[in-house]
Design goal:
The protein has 146 residues and is mainly β. It is built from two helices and eight strands, in the order ααββββββββ. A hairpin with a 4-residue loop joins strand 7 and strand 8. The protein is globular and about 45 Å long. Bound molecules: zinc ion. The site of zinc ion has 8 residues, from loops.
Length: 146
């Protein structure tokens, strides 16, 4: 699959496009066409709006991965984290630009687009979001570093 096709196939990987239910304000990523919260009342039909996630969020859980999957050999060990975005949806992604030992629950991060992996001899490179520390804006109540 070419990079262009990859982008077209998964646009939300590129732009963090989500959707928001204007009835109950719930935000969904990947975007949904109807709101599960409101479906039983059929209220959300036609009331879902596109929403661009800021990419800012906070680590709520993480694990340090030592065993790389095929195509990820260059990246171990790395931190795979659950990040709750400021808009609400929880994303899964690698945390980069920080030592795995420095990643903590509550760490403020920002999505950044990075190379995810190379595929086979053709060298097809897939890009997607990863998270990097957002050191300029520590969250209130975040545990002290160091
Ligand atoms: Zn709803």
């Amino acid at each position: 699959m070419s990079i262009a096709r990859f982008w077209r196939a998964t646009p939300q990987r590129y732009n963090l496009g989500a959707s928001k239910c204007t009835v109950c304000q719930q935000v969904y990523f990947p975007p949904r066409t109807v709101c599960p919260n409101c479906t039983h009342h059929r209220e959300s039909i036609g009331k879902m709006q596109p929403l661009q996630l800021s990419g800012d969020g906070e680590v709520i859980s993480y694990t340090i991965v030592h065993d790389a999957a095929e195509g990820f050999e260059m990246q171990v060990p790395y931190v795979l984290a659950l990040v709750r975005t400021d808009e609400g949806p929880v994303l899964t992604g690698a945390v980069v630009d920080v030592s795995p030992s420095e990643v903590t629950i509550g760490l403020r991060v920002r999505a950044t687009f990075r190379k995810l992996r190379e595929e086979g001899k053709a060298g097809v490179i897939h890009y997607g979001y990863k998270f990097a520390p957002r050191e300029t804006a520590p969250a209130p109540g975040a545990p002290p570093t160091g």
